[in-house]
Amino acid sequence: MVDGDWHRVHPASPFVRGWVALAAIVYFFGRDTFERTLQGRGTIGDNLNERTLWLLAGGGVFLLLALGSFVLSWYFTRYQLAEGYVRVNTGFLFKQQRQARLDRVQAIDIVQPLLARIFGLAELKFEVADAGHSAVRLSYLRLEQAKQLRATILGRAAGIADGSETVQVPEAPEQVVLYVPPGRLVGSLILSEQSFFIVLSAIASVLVSVLTESRAFILYLIPAILGLGTAYWRSFNTGYNFTAAISPDGIRLRYGLLDTRAQTVPPGRIQALKVTQPPLWRLLGWYRIHVNVAGYGEHHRSEGEHRTMLLPVGRKPEVMVMLSLVLPDPGTADPERVFTAGLTGLDSGAGFVTTPKRAWILSPLGWRRNGFLSTDTALLLRSGRLWRKLVMVPHQRTQSIALHQGPLARLFGVADLVLHTTPGPVAPRLIQAAAGEALGLFDQQAARAREARKLQNLAQDNSEQWLPQRRTAPVPAPTTTHPMQHASTQEEPDHG
Hints:
Layout: E1 6-8, H1 13-39, H2 50-75, E2 78-82, E3 85-90, E4 96-101, E5 105-112, H3 114-118, E6 121-128, E7 136-142, H4 143-158, E8 175-179, H5 182-190, H6 193-212, H7 216-219, H8 221-239, E9 243-247, E10 250-255, E11 260-265, E12 270-277, E13 287-293, E14 309-314, H9 316-326, H10 335-344, E15 353-354, E16 371-374, E17 378-383, E18 388-394, E19 400-404, H11 407-412, E20 414-420, E21 429-434, H12 435-458
Antiparallel strand pairs: 1-2, 2-3, 3-4, 5-6, 5-11, 6-7, 8-9, 9-10, 10-11, 12-13, 12-18, 13-14, 15-16, 16-17, 17-18, 19-20, 20-21
Helix pairs in contact: 1-2, 5-8
């Protein structure tokens, strides 16, 4: 792809996007014929009248207008790579140009809805910092063309391609590090929080119905069951065939049953990470991981949380593998013990600072579990006895800090500390720390964040670039034992 050339999307693109409109037109104007056929009253040719002729003429006009708009939409949709930007022009009457700086692209996804998969097409979606409430979309291209364009964009972002190349930029190699079997995904949905509350609601409804001799309460469960069934299907559809791989581009995630998606997220764009474990998952040692990614933001809630899911369900070794990718230097001499203590809530000498005993009444079950630990590279926050949670925030990703203390917390001498990162499913919050320790952590974390950003700038760290300068660097092999054994051996800092 030569720099500055304009290219068009696939000719079938408008039909893939607008097939619903075509189906609606055909149904509206062909409904009469369809009903006649079902009722055995003959075809439309047997009963021609003025009304029928007007319907046929109107349907033909609307169909031609729709097809004409599709052709014009395809003709006036073009894209270009030039001068460090990817530009997309759309519109016939109302023209629009979207552009994204390559060094501001946060993530690139290859999305294949079901109909696009049938035609072998894919959509390329760019998440751009400060892009507002919509991403830059390029739909649709042939699948191989979409993969090649992604590789070209990543190559230019890394500086290994400048637009004058006459050969295709090769796609970076990858190494699969984990795969979630469908059986485990189904098991995780059965043992999920939704199932727990469904069972409790069903038991409560049966008891109330027996006591009141009325069956009306059971009927109230039907809408809830239908809604939860939809949620189950959405989770299964988006989590099916979940695969994670590591490459010089970053972390590659692939998933989906009907609609498939391939994400590429560089670890340096991940601002915060959350590992959770629902109560029933503890029986099988399962966890899930969510992340905040720069550029995704709150406006993606309509697409669900699957785009911020780093691991839908996995065992502890798989969790440790993903943690090692996001935070290759955990900043502690014994990462295995530290992260195990964070996941299980059992300290085992790891050094977590917990809620003081005087405030146990504020959290009778979780006061021993709530705590924090700061390593040389990240702040770890754990909470919960029934719903276990571990949050990790790299020091340089801390944007601001706040202290919260209500009347009861003031009475017992505790406070909450809140860290602000980019919007997403992870909300880092230290619960019920001793007021003095929370205040000390407030000052220490602010200093650590400044120092980490300073060192990153001095070292000209390229952790936020799409590719390292050495594109041919070997891809790390997957491991399931001690994935963080290469970590730094520096001593843990004083926690105040």
